[in-house]
Amino acid sequence: MKDDLIFIAQRWDIEFKHAAGETASTFFKAIMQRREILGRLCPKCKRVLLPPRSFCERCFVETSEWVKVGGEGKIQSFTIVYEKFEGLPPPPYAIAYVLLDGASTAMVNFVKGLDLNNLDQAIKKIKIGAKVKVAFKRKREGRITDFWYELV
Amino acid sequence: MKPHRIGIIGVGQTKYVTRRDDVILPELAREAAVIALEDAGIEFKDIDAIVFSLALDALEGVEGAEKWCAGTVGGFRKPFLRVHTGGATGGSAVHTGFFHIASGLFNCVLVLGAEKMGETHEAQNVLNQIFDPIYERQVAINAVNMCSFQAMRHMKKYGTTEYHLALVAVRSRKNALRNPYAHIKKEITVEEVLNSRVICYPLKLYDCCPRSTGACAVVMASERFIRKLNKRDVAWIKGVASCTNTYFMGDRMDDSGINDHADAEGLFLAAKRAYEMAGISDPKKEIEVAEIYAPFTTTELSAVEALGFCEKGESGISNERGVFDIDGKIPVNPSGGVLTANPISVTALARVAEAALQVMGKAEERQVEKARTAVATGEGGSLQFYTVTVLSDEM
Ligand SMILES: [Zn+2]
User: Fold this and answer.
1) What is the C-alpha separation between B300 and B165, in angstroms, rounded?
2) For residue A61, how far is its CA from the centre of ligand 1 (angstroms)?
3) Consecutive 10-residue averages of pLDDT for chain A (152 residues)
4) What is the complex's ipTM, to 2 decimals?
5) Which of these, A52, B8, B129, B390, could form a disulfide with A40 (CB 3.0-4.6 Å)?
6) Distance A53 CA to ligand 1 centre (A)
């Protein structure tokens, strides 16, 4: 029987249209219209949350106001991906969590403008603690990929 | 809290492999159930309720795949509940079984599940979808690099090196040779790990777990049921605790040192609660074997620190000293662990099953000498859901 088994091919192909909600929509609009990165302030712990959320998960309270954060920051962690993953971009690419000036939490995005073909050379430049700046796409469309980080 | 006397009296596992084309998911789950029931010396009719350990539906290709399996594993006319906390699913399932019996409503609960990761070649694509669709998914974070981010912070904070990561892989592979159920049974050297291809820096191929297919089951019972059965081989559950972190990993990357992504704080807190419940004050001395949910080498380093087996930042050097070797001070993953078999839905359940076998003295080739108190962990989501279970041969 082992060689004689039957296989039934199936696919999950499901389209979603996720509502970003008011909070993320405000965040994306500021990027699209003004090239500004906005965080949300927790009135209790005073952290500026980025990505912005309408609530503080540590204090169990709603966040109270929008705060514009800086266009520069420090890498808090990173990776360079050399493997092709289904549904993800062709490698290599670098991704970093960056603590932008004025923010209390790190936000993840691509790091561009760095030669990644040689890992040893690349990790001499990209490091935890390295300074980066935010760079915006010319034609922004309300996506997290409207901006990325570049080493300064 | 009054002590609950609840034990594991039967364990069943299938050999973990890449594919099982001879059975469908429900049949695979049933295989483990039959073995566990036989081990316990009972039958399907003796089971009061079933807890089904099932993680990502899209890996199986059936939405709510528990409905597919419910009847096959003895659920007809019985309470049946599916549990899903990602990688921690099996740990949560065992805890749910514990709660069932602790409530006094049930005497004997079958906790089981199965995983057929081999059904799709797009398992990574499924795992990519666990991340936030608004802020994070388009940035290509995935189930591997979420652990790379942890590794990078651990290396920066404590001076941990890729060599230390490699030591974990080498030990796991070596231990797996003793385990008939392990998926990957091939020894590797530190050099081979260090020279394996980079997946998501700093994690390389041999820092990563395989995609496995297989099933696991445990039979849990009340003291009354166990006495009536006159069962001798019992792994008593001394402590259960879980702890949750928030979703966004960047929240664990400020410079405060609080809830740092390097440190598995959720595991630390869960362990603290479980140890307290079990009456353990010094895990370094009192825990004699550990089965840790660590799909990547780096996960284990953060975990042994969180579990109190060594100080924060000392997991690397402790590995150099062989502390976690099978004949070391606190043997970790004598089964070979998740690095040598990761059937996601039941991986954390297998940790409990292996820990139970250890304290029952039934772990055969991989038995740790005089292991009477064991700890098993689970970890799921974005390094987010943690479960800790403490087991002992003593009631
Ligand atoms: Zn707060």
Assistant:
1) 9
2) 7
3) 88 96 98 98 98 97 97 98 96 98 98 97 98 98 97 97
4) 0.97
5) A52
6) 11
